[in-house]
Amino acid sequence: QVQLVESGGGSVQAGGSLRLSCAASRYTLGSYCMGWFRQAPGKEREGVAVIGGGRTYYVDSVKGRFTISQDNAKNTVTLQMNSLKPEDTAIYYCAAGLPPCTVDAGTRGYNYWGQGTQVTVSS
Tell me, what DSSP letter sits at residue 105? Predict the structure, then answer.
C-alpha cells in the first residue's frame, strides 16, 4: 500500500515562493510516477508536474516557474514553486501512479493520493 503525506502549503503574495514536500512510503519512488496535482474551487483536478523514469513533465501554465524533484534516499518528492500567481491558488495533492507518466491526462492512472495541502496566493 502506497502512503503519501504532503506538507508545506500556506499563504503567500503574488511573486513569492513556496515549497511543497510529499513523503512517500518506502520503495514508492523507484516504481511509480510521482506527481503534483491541484484543484481550485469549482474546477477539476489537474496535473501540475510529474517525475518518473528520469524525466519531468510540466503543465504549460507552470513551466519555468515550478520545479519537481525527488530524493530517493529520503523517499520524498518536492515541488518548488516560484513566481506564484493568484491563479495558482488551489489545494495541491501528491499522487503516485504506474507508468506511463502523464501530466496532462487528468487523474487517470494515479491511484494513490495524499490528503492535500492548501496554497493561497494573494494579489
Answer: S
79, 83, 62: which is closest to 14 by C-alpha?
83
Q: Which three cell numbers stand for residue 120?
A: 493561497
d(CA 30, CA 9): 25
Is the pLDDT confidence value at 1 over 80?
A: yes
Q: For residue 45, what are the contacts with CB-CB under 8 A and spacing of at least 6?
A: 37, 38, 39, 93, 106, 107
* Degrees to nearest 5, angle at CA 94 with 39 and 118: 50
Q: How far apart are the first and last CA of the chain?
A: 40
**What is the spatial distance between Cα 79 and Cα 19, in angstroms, rounded to a whole number?**
6
What are the pLDDT digits (tens) for 11-38? 999 999 999 999 998 777 788 999 999 9
